Amino acid sequence: MQEKELRFEPALLELRAEDGWEQKNGAWWITPEALDPRTMTRFMLDRNARFMTLTAMEREGGETRLDFHWDWRGIILTFSTQTHENKFASISDLCPAADWVERETYEYFKVEFTGRDNTKPLMLRPGLEAGLNRRQDEKL
Amino acid sequence: MSYRIPIGPFHPALEEPYKLDLICEGETVREAELHVGFNFRAIEYLAERRNYQQVISLVERVCGICSNVHSLTFCLTVERLLGLEVPERAQYIRVAMAELERLHSHILWAGIAAKLIGFKTMFMSCFAMREKVMDTLEMISGNRVNYGMNCFGGVVRDITERAAVLGVVDAIEKELVGSIIPVFTTNSTVGSRCAGIGVLTNAQAMSMGIVGPLARASGVAQDLRRDAPYLVYDRLEFDVPVQTGGDVRARLVVRALELIESCRILRQVMRDMPEGPIAASTGAPRLKVPAGTAVARIEAPRGEVFYSVTANGSDVPQRVKVRTPTFANMPAMQWAVIGAQLADAPLIQASIDPCYSCTDR
Predict the structure, then answer these.
(1) Distance of residue A90 Cα from the nearest chain B Cα, in angstroms
(2) Rounded CA gap, A29 and B121, in Å?
(3) How confident is the model at residue B136, as a pLDDT?
(4) Are B232 and B92 a contacting pair, CB within 8 Å?
(5) Class of the CATH-defined domain A13-114
(6) ipTM of the complex
(7) Lower CB density within 10 Å: C or N end of chain B?
(8) pLDDT tens, residue by residue, B320-350
(9) Do B209 and A67 touch (CB under 8 A)?
(10) Could you give the domains of chain B?
């Protein structure tokens, strides 16, 4: 696919070189060594960014990679990080747009979002076990 | 004293299975709870256990109305990983399919809205017009619903009947301008059912991250075709209708004006589409995709569709993430109905143009 170049300078978002950012495959990828999701959320909301969604992907050792996708002036900024003991701080109280996707991510990958009030099932029916998309019986 | 009215998951008033619990005081809705997942098919799980070609067909089943946008966005994502250049003619054909699908979706929605407003004649007019669009999609692709047009590197069928497509565009625009848009925008009955109903403010729209016509009706002026252009949209002239009212009427006006813009785009596509191949070669029949993650998004009829695909070098994706526009938009319904009259709740939920097939993937 032809890449349509959109003007973006990481300095516009006050991103630091040590945050590790690069443009590839349709987004700007930002991979800070340690990501405080709530600081990230406030930072992006203060700049009128729109929370798009969260992509989760199973990692070895029971952890989960989490890619937080934001739209900022037509550009996708993705903060990529990982759970610790398959837990991660919820941002849904700061950003209502994250509510459903956190519930869904729990159901698919059993990621526990700490600090959430609403833990009702979204997609799965009562009795179905969370962690549907984890490949329990398959080698990664 | 408040009381709860459960609607659904299977109810004559609902087009698709979902459940809405309305907590009312008298005739006024005070709170709403939405329950989804009744049509959950685990498509992301299945996509991670099929080869890439099979996933094109699989994701086309995410939605029954805008099936093309799903196979298109998936192909765009994988083409990024493959570094594939799509021939220009194929890009124009993809735009034509996307805009015909937008016509189909918006006209279908207009018909359903007319029915809920109580305007049965308009419902029949819209559905008759929708048939013309579906016939055109069938003429191009051979199918009326799941078109099977996209492949990695382009499309599988050419558009050879430009004059026929233009004829349909002319006929649709004439009917839109002559009767449907004037009725929807000036008729007093329609106005009284829609104006000031189901309001989502600009601040709410921003906070909920809603997308597409629903967002543009609340003053969020984003359309990916213009603001993050893909395919050949940056070569086409079109306007992005935006309203600030945030009510059902504003949603109606945005979609009506978008129909006209789609006709405008289709004329340019039929005029400017160059000769040439309709697909690039991907080489091996069983495609293996280099390791990495790519994302892509397009402006579907209901708003932004987003895909993230992670490849591990094999012929099966390691991860396929699908974020549909209704998944982003639907939670806002719980805000839009607060304070509304109970009788307006069906129209308010329809004005969001929800697709539960998309939501439940």
Answers:
(1) 16
(2) 51
(3) 95
(4) yes
(5) alpha beta
(6) 0.89
(7) N
(8) 999 999 999 988 888 888 888 888 888 888 8
(9) no
(10) 41-327 (1.10.645.10)
